[in-house]
Design goal:
With 401 residues, the chain is α/β, with parallel strands linked by helices. Helices cover 49% and strands 15% of the residues. The strands form 2 sheets. Strands 1, 2, 3, 4, 5 and 6 form a 6-stranded mixed β-sheet that branches.
Length: 401
């Protein structure tokens, strides 16, 4: 080997070592979803073992008199913060967390989330999945978990972890896919705040006051997902009859089950309630689907057949509320941005005109704007049921001028 070639070999070795060191020092990817769920679960449980001494003493005495009470946990179904939905991914997260807590730790006993079990439960477990901004292949999820003391409303443990968003299915469960509106309201926002509150803080009061209704809604939604529509309708109505049961999820459930059972008048009445409640919250996102690149409603009447009724009720409830509205059009993330801006504006204008046709007084009290895909919720650009929320039209109450 010549001196020159030896120097080249040495340089190559040094360069290789340098690159290896840089790679080792560079940012590492988060773990896979299953591992991240386990990490968050372990951290959550570890925190329950670090409670103040007086709390541990009280729990020990409870354990002696009633072992099952100490471990009793109910779970309000975990949610995707991007869409406000229960999804295949949040269901899997729930299964991973509860499975690990049951197998690895012996101090927890999970009870079904139903009204009869709320008084027996010591803890409420909530969890969220949040899709963080990023581009493939580095898309990342944040898992958040919280344990809340059911009697005091105090957060006794809170844990988060990051996970790679590789092959994770974010498809909404049947009820959420079928819902005509975006189901984010004060209760859902309270759920998010509770799950994001550090240990030692307090759960959201508005949310906690509605736990009993939430458990009834969960039972009804499970029945809907199982296609047991008559039973689901009865349970949604039971929830609505409670003082805290008037929620978007309840009214949407009554609408959906009434449609499935052919109860047209009941469905329209329920949708009117959805609209009134959404306007009271100052925001109502409705999933109007259009043919691709068009201002014509989706051609399949199974999808768009209810739209005239939706528009009629939106117009009437807006008029009843003496509201001034901004009609905001959105598109999915496909195609060029300028074209989508124009398309979303045209679609909003079509909806606005249909409202004015229903109630002429809304003419000077409404305006149309287009967001294109700037405010996507899903952002997949797949133009199918998965990103239906991106092709919504929102109605926002604005000051009358």
């Amino acid at each position: 080997m010549t001196i020159h070639s030896a120097r080249l070999s040495a340089c190559a070795l040094v360069t290789g070592l340098a690159l290896a060191l840089l790679a080792a020092c560079g940012p590492s990817q988060p773990p896979v979803f299953e591992q991240a769920a386990s990490d968050a679960t372990d951290e959550l449980v570890a925190q329950t073992r670090k409670l103040p001494a007086f709390v541990v003493k009280v729990q020990a005495s409870i354990m002696k008199s009633a072992p099952e009470a100490r471990r009793a946990v109910v779970i309000d179904p975990m949610l995707d913060t991007t869409t406000g939905q229960q999804t295949i991914a949040t269901t899997l997260l729930e299964q991973r967390v509860t499975g690990r807590m049951t197998v690895k730790f012996d101090q927890f006993d999970f009870l079904t989330f139903q009204p009869s079990n709320l008084a027996r439960a010591q803890y409420l477990l909530t969890g969220t999945l949040t899709r963080l901004p990023g581009s493939p292949p580095r898309k990342t999820l944040r898992i958040s978990l919280a344990l809340t003391d059911m009697k005091t409303g105090a957060i006794v443990a809170h844990a988060t972890s990051l996970a790679r968003d590789d092959g994770v299915d974010h498809t909404g469960l049947r009820y959420y896919k079928d819902s005509p509106v975006l189901l984010k309201d004060k209760v859902i926002e309270g759920y998010y705040r509770t799950t994001d509150t550090p240990a030692g803080g307090k759960a959201d009061g508005y949310y906690m006051e509605r736990i009993a209704a939430a458990s009834m809604i969960r039972e009804a939604t499970d029945l809907y997902n199982a296609e047991r529509y008559q039973e689901a309708l009865g349970q949604y109505r039971n929830a609505l009859a409670t003082p805290e049961g008037e929620q978007l999820r309840t009214l949407s459930g009554i609408y959906l089950t009434s449609v499935k059972l052919g109860k047209t008048a009941d469905a329209e009445k329920a949708f009117a309630g959805v609209v009134a409640l959404g306007l009271a919250y100052n925001e109502l996102g409705v999933k109007f689907l259009f043919n691709p690149g068009s201002v014509e409603f989706w051609s399949d009447p199974k999808i768009s057949g209810a739209y005239p009724m939706w528009l009629r009720q939106i117009a009437r409830e807006s008029a009843n509320a003496n509201a001034c509205l901004e009609v905001v059009g959105h598109t999915s993330h496909s195609g060029a941005a300028p074209a989508n801006e124009q398309l979303s504006l045209r679609r909003a204008a079509v909806i606005r005109q249909r409202l004015v046709t229903e109630v002429a007084a809304l003419g000077p009290r409404t305006r149309a704007t287009g967001m294109g895909f700037r405010q996507n919720i899903v952002g997949s650009g797949t133009d199918d049921a998965f990103d239906a929320l991106d092709r919504r039209v929102e109605f926002k109450i604005v000051p009358c001028t």
